[in-house]
Amino acid sequence: MSGVALSRIEREIARRSERVPGLRALPVFKLLAAAEVLLLARQHALRLDPAERRRLVELVRIGHGRRRNLDPAQREELAALVEKAAPREFVGEVVTRFSPVPLPRRVVEGRRRRRRD
User: Fold this and answer.
1) Which tens digit of pLDDT belongs to each residue from 36-73?
2) How many C-beta atoms surround the C-beta of residue 23 within 10 A?
3) pTM
4) Is 89 helix (H, G, I), strand (E, B) or coil?
């Protein structure tokens, strides 16, 4: 130890990280950042009900990461499920958490749609 007293949380993280290969080499800040991103991802994943989450995973498996492996109806279904999880908002929240400079709203929310009269 470099003369600095570790908090109880830091000691607990260090103790548990000994069980995971390679984890000890990561600084605590990176672990906390990764945990923060995981929590935000969980919030967005929970926007889908369990059946929708299962279907999303099923479509991704069927497609093997390629849209062309899905038929048009499956592509539309996948797009609707992904849209419901709000990935643009998720990325905006992640960047906002870690960036000292806030993102412009148009980046997070998209272009403003013109009203049709």
Assistant:
1) 898 899 999 999 999 999 999 999 999 998 889 999 99
2) 13
3) 0.63
4) helix
